[in-house]
Specification:
Rossmann fold, about 40% helix, about 150 residues, 5 strands, five-stranded parallel beta sheet, 6 helices, about 20% strand, alpha/beta
């Protein structure tokens, strides 16, 4: 059973493609909570497709992330889902892994960019790091419109 579902979001539409799957699972299983997790990396990190503008402070990035999570949470709560928000600071994959270990997560749900080759080597793969580090069910969604 999936009592505690962790949904990782990065502020992108791609990351949100996992939400309909989580909604379906949370309505079919006796879910106690759906945790929306957003990790704000240090300002010196650069991510392709990031929604942060250059020069934003850590506090500004966290405020943007909090507003984003609040919006998604409100939408899910309106559908009757038990939603919590978690905002963390640090290296994305490590924070996801730590949160899952610390909070008894039963299912991790996330989207992947589906990068390969040089892009994967340069930007890394949060999904791959998480997959290799957690021993729990992971719902990994790769949107069809992603170009490799």
């Amino acid at each position: 059973m999936f009592y505690n579902i962790l949904v990782t979001l990065d502020g992108s539409e791609l990351a949100e493609t996992v939400i309909p799957y989580v909604e379906g699972l949370a309505t079919r299983f006796p879910t106690r909570k759906v945790v929306l997790l957003r990790v704000v990396p240090p300002p010196h990190y650069f991510f392709e497709g990031s929604f942060y503008a250059l020069g934003e402070t850590q506090e500004q990035m966290e405020a943007i992330a909090q507003e984003y999570l609040d919006k998604i949470a409100s939408r899910l709560q309106a559908k009757g889902l038990p939603v919590e928000i978690e905002l963390r600071r640090g290296e994305v994959a490590s924070e996801i892994i730590d949160y899952a270990h610390e909070h008894g997560i039963d299912l991790l749900a996330m989207s992947t960019h589906g990068r390969s080759g040089v892009k994967r080597w340069v930007f890394g793969s949060v999904a791959e790091k998480v997959l290799r580090s957690l021993n729990l069910p992971i719902l990994l969604i790769r949107p069809e419109e992603v170009q490799i």
